[in-house]
Amino acid sequence: MTAPAIVADGVRKRYGDIQAVDGVSLRIEAGEFYGILGPNGAGKTTTLEIMEGVREPDEGRIELFGQSPWPRNLDLLTRIGVQFQASSFLDKMTTRETIRLFASFYRVGARQADAMLERVGLTEFAQVPADKLSGGQAQRLSIACGLVHDPEIVFLDEPTAGLDPQARRNLWDLLRDVNEEGRTVVLTTHYLDEAEVLCDRVSVMERGKVLRTGAPAALVRELDNMVRVSVESGLLTPDAMRDSLKDVGVVDATVEDDGVLLTVTTVAPGPVLSVLADRGALRGLEVRGATLEDVFLQLTGREYRS
Hints:
Blueprint: E1 6-15, E2 18-28, E3 33-37, H1 44-52, E4 59-64, H2 74-77, E5 80-83, H3 95-105, H4 110-119, H5 135-147, E6 153-157, H6 165-180, E7 184-189, H7 192-198, E8 201-206, E9 209-214, H8 216-221, E10 227-232, H9 238-247, E11 254-257, E12 261-266, H10 269-278, E13 286-289, H11 292-300
Parallel strand pairs: 3-7, 3-8, 5-6, 6-7
Antiparallel strand pairs: 1-2, 1-4, 8-9, 10-12, 10-13, 11-12
């Protein structure tokens, strides 16, 4: 059996009265695209920083390739690449100068640095001051700086936070390519759709604890094929919808109206659609299968908030 790239066993970290990480245990295989997801404050970033060797755990064990990253392990530095949640580039340094500077930390030449700049689509911005790049361009530069020395493990902390939808999807393509080259990628995100698209497996975190781990599709399948049926709000009141569903024997559905959509969540969408058709309430009809958001709701009993 191939040795795992990363092992975490009973990791804990506290800041004053806040238990940021509470007994996290993970095993991440070599070449895996692994997501750590949850809302802000779930403990994702602290968990990642402990893996990177940036922070010391209060308890527990972390190993990368069988070695502890703490205290700062020089043998691991060239084998891991890091993109932090927020990156600040030096004033007045151009994009090319910035990536060449990062490359020099690992004794990587200018030619390889420039090739990485081209790979992330920033060659035409090479002479632009790094602090003048757009949000998506800055994130690409940050990732390029973490990849320039060809690491085996790449840590990405919310790399698409604050980006517009097009910039997010452009970054997804880059991250897929990085993983397909055989690198282990560990991603934290509060975008559940991002985890579903990119990750082989995910761990759902809340209040410092890992609630569930598995492939996104497998976690969703555990929800007994839950389906959401939505129509425009105002066609039926929630109470009228519940009464109509009871009349046809549907008693396990939930009905919510947020003022925009009336949504019925059920494992039996057929009778729901029949009721809506009979009542002439099909305007804006949308039928969606379960998602990781539904997994989170089932695990925590509350809606996901990023």
